[in-house]
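Below is a complete specimen:
___
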Amino acid sequence: MSKLYKAQTEMVHTWEFTAFIRAVGEARSKQEEDEIIQRDLGNLRKSFETAHVEDWLLKEYVVRVLYAEMLGHPAKFAHIHCVNLSASPDLLVKRTGYLGTWLTIAPQEDIMILIVSNLLRDMNSCNFLHTAAALTAASKVVRRDLICAIKPEVVKLLDHSAPLVRKKAVIALHALYRNTADLIDYKNFFLRALGDPNPAVEAAALSPLLDIVQTNPELCRDLTETFIKVLEKVVSRRLSGDYEYQRVPGPWFQIQVMRILAALVCDSRELAAKCEYVLTEVITRADTGSTIGYAVACEAISLITRIPTIPSLIELSVETTAKMFATRNVNLRYTAIQALSNLACINTDYLRRHQEDILECLGDGDEMIRRKTTFLLLSMCNEGNVDIIVKKLIKYLNSQIDKYVLQELTQSICRTVERFSMRRLWYISTMNRLLLCAAEHVPYSSIQGMLKLIVEGGESGDEASDVAFRLRCVEDYFGLISCSQKKMPDALCRVAAWVVGEYGFLATAINRRLMVDGLCDLFARTDSGDARDWIIMAVMKIVASDGVVPENVKELIERFKDSRIATTQQRCYEFSRLTQMLPLMKRSLPLDRCCEEVDIEETLSFLNPFVQKALLGGAKPYEKRPVCREVRMEIPLCIEKYETPQLKTSEASLTCEVCDTEAKPPELAIRPSTRRWGAKTGNAAAMVNTGLAPDSHMREVGGGERITLSAQVARTGATLDEPCGVFGPQCDQSLPATPPTLGTKCSKNKKLLEDIFDASVQLKKYPHVAQQVPDLFEAVEVENKKNLAGENGSALSVHMEHVREERAVGITLFIVGNVTVNDLVVNVLPPSNCTLHVTSHSVQSAKLTGSTTITMETLKVNQSLEVVMQLLLTGFPNDMHVRVKVVYRRSEPFDMIDVGKSESKTATMTLQVGDFLRPASSMTTDTFGEMWLKYIGEYKTTLHGTAALTLESISQLLMERASLRVVEMIGNELIVAAVLPGTDQLLLGHVVLVDHHCANATFRAQDKRLAEFVVRSLDSAIPLS
């Protein structure tokens, strides 16, 4: 017999009901489902209007209404029928009416007042099942202003003869308490229910009592002995056998009572001593080898660790934890780790006997076990082992992708670092490493704490030490800004920009021009409006102290005066205005005055002459509006159907990612597609596969020099696990770490635990000896020696910039001597199909030999050589790199380097396709059509956007990324064109907008490589959807 036949015969459902359920279940789309439901609601409306409808049929109608409401279709016309159905004498029909009422009608609706009379009538019914149904509905539907009407009736039912009614009355009172929180009144009711002879009523009273105790434990402290007696009664098996589970008496009863005791005992040693016997009995009797027994024992351990320490209970907890570790059940091992975390809060020595278990869990194959054990390490932290544990956790953090795990672990690390911070340098180094891998989850208060520490210095008040520490921070943050070519986290951008701008004047060894250029490059690499505001303020402070406004800063400020981000626009206008009054700018932004208090005149009396003048001119006087301080009414629950969202382009999705633009276009995915426009010739272009960049373990240093972490370690003499400067090791998150073998992992974890416990023992033996951290002055002295030799031992600093000119690309090369060097030879190599011409250089003694080679006899310390060049195109460049090689000899020996030995330094600057192309301003539609048919080098793509696409947003994207100017827009199509200056080669494009999130694009050029390279550049600049 089929289920459908049973539903149509035995369950006495109508054919319409079964057909409706089957049609909804078989709907193939949301639109089809909506049509079915709307059609059924129309039939229901007519059926409800019938004069006489039997109760069983009305119950079926209400169930169909529940289905419609559940699927998002309001049926307000049926709400009154749900209320009427609750007045039926039939129990099943009545319960259906109550169910429909609390599921479809919001508590704030006026119709809810009608249900009160039905509730009161059923509460006074002689049928206890009707009374129980009314109490269940009362806990769901009654709102605050109706509580006074039913509360007396609910209280009277606490003395009902049926245990089911008394239990339901307690649950209903719990719901009323959550709405009113009349503490004293409800406390007495629940205590009376706790003494009920029926265990079910007692168990129901525990949940509201737990809420009351947690709200005000001091008021309920006198009830501790009462709950101890209740727990003794349960443990001694004085409840009936119906409440035993896996040979454990009332396990959920015990867990609830122990949670109440944990809130009541708190720090009272007297009350903790009273709990010793009953907790011993709980753990002993729960040792049945069953899962529920271990659950009760784990709750008891949690209680034991939250009250004043009792040695006998602690030893019993440790033994129980060892038994849980002995099982191979994953859930029990997870519970054991949680118990160890609680024990570690008292004393980490209790974890020593479980060292092997912790070691095994760190290498466990279950991800949750490894994650829980990693959090256990935080409980073991102290001043001696915090450095070891935090390094391990940050390494683990780099391998996580779960958003909530990242957030929880990052905040836990921040709290641990702030609690056990050893020295300032270690604290800043650790926080910077944390910002590099999880900046979006670091609390704002922790970032403010970093800045406060740099500003206020140490507690000793040694000004020289504070200055040396700030100098170290400036040099390391500037090194990060100038060395990294990747996008930095916004929080780290703000911190670095603020430190360099506020205390950059302390770093006399760093050229101010390089400092400003580094901040401008950082501005180009970030797309956050907030971070850009901080960078502009940092540049403003440096310019104010230096008294000179560089040309690239002027260009940047003028470009972003029209920013759509209001704060960025305001900063640019302020900067532009202050540059016209440099003395005022210097007074407004004094050096090292960030902590100085500024007196603010709240009355703004200095504006009185301006106000009087405006009033005399006929301006309307200001009228102070009264402030309404009345309590607003609560907004009722919205049960209306959501409005259909309007597709529009979000400004936030058009934020710019590079310095050339100000707003970022919609995120697009570029994929090859089949030919949709133009002549059908040949096969479609192949898929462009973009992978990770080569040498992704490497980072760029200085003016383009690339060094690996191992090379950096060899130069600085540190290990990969030690902090390098203020930042520590640079962790590359783009490549997953190769998983080690089991033996290697166990040996590493074993060494980790040995280091943790050994550091703790050493701290106890010698409390005055902290973790070995280089002395602040020693660190500064070592850093100064490094500065004398140049960055990472190099005698020169090399930096390149580029600007777009009308017919060429302007390139400026900066070479700064960190030490005096002789026989300087500079050779610049342009990309293929390009030529370089040196137009000027800043040092008269420098000689130009050839078109791209410059020689110089001597470059002194801190002397700067600036070379201005033009890059001209003879064809499409196959690569986009400008390379420079500098050969020199040191004038003074450094370490093991011989005086006469030649050294070299290289740097590379990568250009984008938009740097070479220029908009085809003279292109017309007719000319476009003629050239389109002549060009055969074609490449096709599909643009996919996470935000809604429009022709305007696509044209903006193409102009920003590839200088493609719109020739004409026709309907949902647009044609664009760009020219390669110096060669007259054209790049033509045709885009068809398919829908709000997809567009097909075709690019043609005389050389197909040009079209293909443009697509690849767009693909690398825009994340895939």
Q: What stands out?
A: The radius of gyration is 38 Å. The first helix runs from residue 3 to 9. Residues 311 and 913 are 72 Å apart (CA to CA). The chain has a mean pLDDT of 77.
